[in-house]
Design a protein that fits this description.
alpha+beta, 21 helices, about 45% helix
Length: about 525
């Protein structure tokens, strides 16, 4: 075993086992293994991809080691001696010197401390994205593992919000027919007193609470049936999880569309999506241009081919792509971090790139970047971690930290950027999402008919089938109508516009819609 790998594993395992968190890892491993055996990939959320033990346990696809080459045939490896790339996925394929098979790059350079803390004292939060089709099966499997009397759905508590509380006060005035109505100040004061009061209870969409085998659920919380249905499959904890999270285990087994999309691609094409390269030049090109789509740009107003790609398809993120023109996987990860953070892109990184202060690959995109960057400048690991934790939570920099950063030649723009940040996205989360985005982009570029089948089957919120069947001119006309009536548009109109945007792109690439029952799939190309 390479020394760098052994050191990382030993350090992580010492923290995980020493704090008693190995159970969380083992159960997560069983859940993911079961889903994979049943044919569904599982995506990771949050910082779990910062843990190499999680990678080796099959819990996450994200590899947090430094960028390196690996031969999956003979296990030959080569770690890079420099920091020429931030992601191993950006390394060009090369021939293995031992068995002469192709070697691919891997490794995202993510410190373990962002997951379990510098002293290994943070409670691990392993959040997993299961296919929406499979989520119920994953939930049911926890009953097999722990027993039905020890597994419960996490309850939620809905409280009275500001506008509702104000409505209660107004309703009280009308119902009581008060001779002298309340003053506005009195209404506001009474409404404030109602805010936060319990209004209803619900069920967390993915939270599963696990009670220790030697204890009873009532040692922690009462339980209830959802909607008072005694025949419901699940009982729900009465208390909100945040009230009991310090002394009971919870798993977030969430449903997500990406694993469903991966399953759909595999069913339609027979391609194992985990074999799709992350460094295919034509695929990467659609995040900065239209070149990879082979589309007539004179008839299409978009600058990039990112429409309909998860994480990158919104107008906001497409705007970032148009401005920054990313060329590498690492830059896509940075953009994912920039778009999910608060005060990370707007009035911060955007201005730094626009005025030429720095480039996209130099700005702070994800929280982990701060720790890695500061250690690169020469700051001690503990200080780098502490600064990262403060900045990512929006607490800024203490004077003594600023002084330390300046002593180590950290640029002034970097220090000022840290001060503006209010919230930062974990890099492991960004990497996991970008991996699936690149896979979907690969199908969009290389197997477009299957990509559009996937998109219009599971990713649209609304349709205008009649318009879509009529072709390019009808689609353009409908999109113009929705744009002109911007102020009158309903959420459904906006959803239809998003659908038509992809319908137009598809038609311009030579494909068409039909409602003919006997149409052959291969005839869809124009």
């Amino acid at each position: 075993m390479p020394e760098i790998v052994e050191k990382r594993l030993v350090r992580e395992l010492d923290s995980i086992i020493g704090a008693g968190y190995y159970v969380v890892y083992y159960i997560s491993h069983l859940l993911v293994k079961k889903s994979n055996e049943d044919g569904y990939l599982v995506g990771s959320r949050g910082s779990v991809g910062s843990s190499f033990v999680a990678t080796m346990s099959g819990i996450t696809e994200v590899n947090p080691l430094m960028p390196h080459y690996i031969c999956h045939h003979c296990q030959h490896y080569e770690f890079l001696d420099d920091d020429s790339v931030k992601s191993g996925f950006d390394l060009p394929d090369k021939e293995c010197p031992i068995c002469h098979r192709p070697m691919r790059g891997d490794g995202q350079d993510i410190p373990f401390e962002t997951f379990l803390g510098f002293e290994g004292d943070k409670v691990p939060d392993i959040d997993l994205n299961f296919s929406g089709e499979y989520q119920a099966n994953a939930h049911a499997y926890t009953k097999e593992v722990f027993g039905e009397d020890h597994v419960f759905r996490a309850g939620t508590v809905g409280t009275v919000q500001e506008k509702t509380a104000y409505g209660y006060v107004k309703g009280f005035e009308e119902e009581m027919e008060l001779p002298v109505p309340f003053s506005e100040a009195k209404r506001t004061d009474l409404a404030k007193g109602c805010e936060g009061v319990k209004r209803t209870t619900g069920q967390h969409p993915g939270g599963i609470v696990v009670v220790p085998l030697d204890m009873d659920v009532h040692d922690f919380t009462p339980v209830q049936y959802p909607a008072n249905n005694p025949y419901a499959e699940w009982k729900t904890t009465h208390f909100d999880f945040h009230q009991i999270h310090d002394n009971i285990l919870k798993f977030d087994i969430l449903g997500h569309v990406d694993p469903t999309a991966m399953k759909m691609f595999e069913r339609m094409t027979g391609i194992d999506v985990t074999t799709i390269p992350m460094n295919d030049p034509k695929t990467m090109s659609i995040f900065s241009s239209l070149d990879g789509l082979d589309i007539d740009s004179t008839r299409y107003s978009e600058v990039t081919g990112a429409a309909g790609i998860p994480e990158f398809g919104t107008p906001f993120v497409r705007g970032i792509l148009e401005m920054t023109k990313p060329k590498t996987f690492a830059e896509l990860v940075t953009i994912s971090g920039l778009s999910h953070g608060t005060n990370v892109w707007l009035s911060n990184a955007k201005d730094l790139i626009e005025d030429g202060t720095c480039k996209l690959n130099e700005v702070i995109g994800c929280r982990d970047d701060i720790m890695v960057d500061l250690m690169g400048y020469g700051l001690p690991p503990k200080a780098s971690f502490t600064i990262m934790e403060s900045v990512r939570k929006g607490k800024g920099l203490k004077p003594e930290w600023e002084e330390l950063m300046k002593e180590n030649k950290v640029p002034d723009w970097y220090i000022e950027s840290c001060k503006k940040i209010k919230y930062m996205f974990p890099k492991a989360h960004a990497v996991a999402y970008v991996m699936n985005a690149v896979r979907i982009a690969w199908f969009k570029v290389h197997m477009p008919a299957y990509y559009y089948c996937q998109y219009f089957s599971i990713r649209c919120d609304a349709y205008d089938i009649q318009t879509m069947i009529q072709g390019e001119e009808a689609i353009r006309k409908k999109m113009s109508e929705i744009k002109l009536n911007k102020e009158m548009n309903t959420p459904k109109d906006k959803a239809i516009y998003d659908t038509l945007e992809l319908a137009l792109e598809m038609v311009l690439r030579g494909y068409r819609f039909t409602n003919e029952a006997d149409a052959d799939f291969e005839d869809f190309a124009g």
